[in-house]
Specification:
- By secondary structure, the chain is mainly beta.
- 11% of the residues lie in helices and 38% in strands.
- The protein has one domain (29-210).
- It has one helix at 2-24; strands at 29-32, 35-37, 42-43, 47-50, 54-56, 59-60, 64-67, 72-74, 79-80, 84-86, 92-94, 97-98, 102-104, 110-112, 117-118, 122-124, 130-132, 137-138, 142-144, 150-152, 155-156, 160-162, 168-170, 175-176, 180-182, 188-190, 195-196, 200-202, 208-210.
- The longest helix has 23 residues, at 2-24.
Length: 211
């Protein structure tokens, strides 16, 4: 009798342990069409939206993925603890806080607004451009891999790299701790007053223009 009870308890414990990984993913959310995370709401897992715009006033603890037509907007009250990936024709606009990386793979732009901050890297791989406003902060690197430009007015702790056909513009209010590099046909425009702790390189067919 005791042996049977012991086996039953062991079997129950095994089932509970097996169920734990499933429960860990129970808070992930997937939606078709535009979706809003209201102020004061927290999504504990990942958020995936297809064919719609994601508006974040609250908190997303995981990653945010936007697939198809639509954009991702993190408002000043919004916070994303993971990464943001936009893979359609839309843009990523950050007014709030993003703890991870921001990646745009389509034709849209990535803009970190005055009140926004990104703790990770910012990458644009399509036809769009990257813009960091005055007062905005990017703690990682910025990489533009497509034909779009990079425009920096704010603060970047890492490197700024333009590897496509676009220009790289560093305005007078910019503060960059790393290197500034343009690798192909675009120019580097370095405005008076800009602070760059690293080196400035023009490694492609373009020019380094000091204004």
């Amino acid at each position: 009798m005791k042996i049977s009870r012991t086996l039953a308890i062991a079997a129950t414990s095994s089932l509970l342990l097996t169920a734990v990984p499933l429960a860990a993913h129970a808070d992930d959310l997937s939606r078709n069409g535009s979706y809003t995370v209201e102020r004061g709401r927290t999504i504990s897992g990942d958020l995936t939206v297809r064919k719609g715009t994601v508006k974040i006033y609250g908190t997303v603890k995981g990653d945010v993925r936007q697939i198809g037509k639509g954009s991702v907007i993190v408002y000043a009250s919004g916070e994303v603890d993971g990464n943001i990936v936009e893979s359609g024709k839309g843009s990523v606009r950050v007014h709030g806080d993003v703890d991870g990386n921001v990646t745009e793979r389509g034709k849209g732009i990535v803009r970190v607004h005055r009140s926004g901050s990104v703790d990770g890297n910012v990458s644009e791989r399509g036809a769009g451009f990257v813009e960091v406003d005055r007062g905005a902060e990017v703690d990682g690197n910025i990489v533009e891999r497509g034909p779009g430009d990079v425009l920096v007015r704010g603060s970047v702790d890492g490197n700024v790299d333009e590897t496509g056909k676009g220009d790289l513009l560093v305005l007078g209010t910019a503060e960059i701790d790393g290197d500034v590099t343009e690798r192909k046909a675009g120019n580097v425009y370095l405005y008076r007053g800009a602070s760059i702790d690293g080196s400035v390189h023009e490694r492609g067919k373009g020019r380094l223009v000091r204004l």
